[in-house]
């Protein structure tokens, strides 16, 4: 009686623990947190100064007593302790008592190792989960978009996140083949930072690169090209300076990571069994994740692959919504939970 009453009161949570953003879905409430995966801590005491949006504002602007950490790199945990603190803080933001957490489902990249899976499970359990399950990001994304994943029909999903791009062919509740590359939004930001260094001797920060990418970045020519001013530090004389830049130049700077993702999509299509390939030709490719918001990315993929491309509605929250569906209908989706291997 006591345990079932506790289960009744407890909150089940789905977490899309992304390199760039963390999105939390609470059963019965929907999406309650959608913020950057960043935490600011006091250097000496590990006391939390800020998390999410507030911590992002501090990126590159802190003094030596405060450190900003992005605990995930390339879709996996790079800083174990900071991840655990961050999950705890986000759960607090979601107004959930730590004692009242039931199950936590966390989404992970399909290329993740058993050791990395163990680290994610441990983080969830230390943050207060009574039990934790893992689901492949691409699968959660497909469920969140509303695809009928249990049918014997091929669906192709391309989830471009901050640290990884997940490309998966899904049929009969399983991933037929997947390609997981550690190239995503972060790699695009880094390409911009290097471009300004090389071409303008200008040093710009990570946050500036992100803003430029979101505001004027594109993967294919825009109807009307845009110009903007970029501020940074001159690498030669060390003083701040401003340069004018066009969206065409930014597109050139982003070309390498964009083409790496497109080449991975082509490789995935080459590996697809012919029956499923014909389904995908009929149904097209579904684009999700924050990378789907890059202007004309769908146009560029269409040009390169000659396939129909559909950008998901609210691509940033597809994975978390998929988690929500799994929590709401556990029997229907039990086959998509990643099995835990023993003796790892």
Q: What is the H-and-E element order?
A: HEEEEEHEEEHEHEHEEEHEHEEHHEHEH
Describe the sheet with the most strands: 5 strands, mixed
Rounded mean pLDDT is 91
What form results from the Cα inertia axes?
flat
What's the Cα radius of gyration? 21 Å
Q: Please identify the top-level CATH class of the domain at 141-183 and 261-315.
A: Alpha Beta
| CATH architectural designation of the domain at 141-183 and 261-315 | 2-Layer Sandwich
N- to C-terminal distance: 35 Å
Report the structural category.
alpha+beta
Overview of this protein structure:
The protein is of the alpha+beta class. Among the domains are: 141-183 and 261-315, Nucleotidyltransferase, domain 5 (2-Layer Sandwich), CATH 3.30.420; 185-254, ATPase, substrate binding domain, subdomain 4 (Actin, Chain A, domain 4). 38% of the residues lie in helices and 28% in strands. The chain contains eleven helices and 18 strands. It has helices spanning 2-9, 53-58, 80-93, 114-126, 137-145, 185-200, 206-216, 247-270, 274-283, 297-305, 318-328; strands at residues 11-17, 21-26, 30-36, 39-42, 48-51, 66-69, 72-73, 76-77, 101-108, 131-136, 155-160, 165-171, 174-181, 202-203, 227-234, 240-246, 285-288, 309-311. The strands form five sheets. The protein has a five-stranded mixed sheet with strand order 3-2-1-9-10, with helices on both faces. Helix 4 (114-126) links the parallel strand 9 (101-108) and strand 10 (131-136). The radius of gyration is 21 Å and the shape is flat.
């Amino acid at each position: 009686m006591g345990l079932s009453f506790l289960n009744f009161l407890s909150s089940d949570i789905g977490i899309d623990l992304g390199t760039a953003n963390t999105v939390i879905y609470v059963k019965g409430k929907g999406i309650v947190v959608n913020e950057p995966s960043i935490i600011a801590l006091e250097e000496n005491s590990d006391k939390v100064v800020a998390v999410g949006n507030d911590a992002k504002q501090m990126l590159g602007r802190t003094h030596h007593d405060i450190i900003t950490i992005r605990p995930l790199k390339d879709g996996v945990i790079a800083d174990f302790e900071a991840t655990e603190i961050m999950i705890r803080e986000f759960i607090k933001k979601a107004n959930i008592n730590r004692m009242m957490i039931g199950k936590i489902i966390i989404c992970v990249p399909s290329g993740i190792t058993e050791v990395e899976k163990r680290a994610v499970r441990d983080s969830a359990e230390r943050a207060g989960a009574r039990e934790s399950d893992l689901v492949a990001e691409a699968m959660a994304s497909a469920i969140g978009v509303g695809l009928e994943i249990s049918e014997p029909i091929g669906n192709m999903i391309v989830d471009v996140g901050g640290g990884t791009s997940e490309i998966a062919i899904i049929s009969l509740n399983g991933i037929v083949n997947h390609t997981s590359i550690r190239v995503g939004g972060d790699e695009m930001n880094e390409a911009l930072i290097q471009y300004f260094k090389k071409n303008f001797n200008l040093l710009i920060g990570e946050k500036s690169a992100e803003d430029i990418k979101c505001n004027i970045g594109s993967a294919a020519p825009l109807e009307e090209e845009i110009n903007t001013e970029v501020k940074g530090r001159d690498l030669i004389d060390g003083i701040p300076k401003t340069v004018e830049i066009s969206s065409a130049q930014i597109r050139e700077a982003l070309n390498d990571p964009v083409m790496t993702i497109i080449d991975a999509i082509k490789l995935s299509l080459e590996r697809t069994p012919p029956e499923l390939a014909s389904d995908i030709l009929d149904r097209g490719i579904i684009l999700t994740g924050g990378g789907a918001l890059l202007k004309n990315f769908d146009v560029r993929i269409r040009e390169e692959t000659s396939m129909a491309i559909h950008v998901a509605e609210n691509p940033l929250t597809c994975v978390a919504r998929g988690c929500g569906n799994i929590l709401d209908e556990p029997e229907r989706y039990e086959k998509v939970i990643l099995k835990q291997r023993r003796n790892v």
